[in-house]
Amino acid sequence: MKRFMFLCLMILLAAGVFGQIDISVGGQVGLGFASTTTKYEVDSDNYSETSGMDTMLALGAFVDATYARLAISYAMSLGRSGKDKQVLGGDEESDTIETPDNYYLNVLNIELLGKYPIKLGSLVIWPAAGILYSMVLSVNADGDDEADDLSDMEVNDLYLAVGCGVDYSITANLYVTGCALFNYNLTPNPTKDDLPDEVSIFSYILSFYLGVGYKL
Questions:
Q1: For the chain, what is the domain count?
Q2: Which residues does 195 contact at the CB level (< 8 Å), separation at least 6?
Q3: 73 near 106, Cβ under 8 Å?
Q4: Of the candidates 21, 43, 44, 207, which has an alpha carbon nearest to the alpha carbon of residue 114?
Q5: Residue 134 maps to which CATH number?
Q6: How confident is the model at residue 9 (pLDDT cuts 50, 70, 90)?
Q7: Quick one: which of 67, 75, 95, 188 has the fewest CB in 10 Å?
């Protein structure tokens, strides 16, 4: 992972040196909504579905090279909500899943985006696409006194990211930046085994960031 981060940073710096691209650095705060839905389906009239959503607060930094941005952030869960739905013979029943008082989730996110800047005076709008790698640092899902043992699970995930951002220049070097991203989980299976045919998992993160950048 350290090699991956170093390579991404070197790509950004090389682009700035050889491509005459503006290099900037900055910090940002973000709010994310991480959702996972697991479905066990026999047929359309008989299935069970469990869903959960974490509201995540993120703090991080970024390096921007006009056409690419590398962002690294630490995120923690502010709270989790869940729902369990059962459908038998077409009849549906649903219940709210209670979250333990001691529940917590901490992750490290590394996101690399390709951008296409559209300049409109002091405003720059940039559609973006890229990848997000999310690593779970610690989690306590059952609310006991110790963090969960994740050694037998695959909890680090790769996401496909798409979205749009905007930069607004305050001075020649200082600007405010914000973006909204939809991150689709390409590796939602938390186990090391293949999922049965009856089981499907849909997972995503909807994130919003606001920050300040400085052109070097």
A1: 1
A2: 189, 201
A3: no
A4: 21
A5: 2.40.160
A6: low
A7: 95
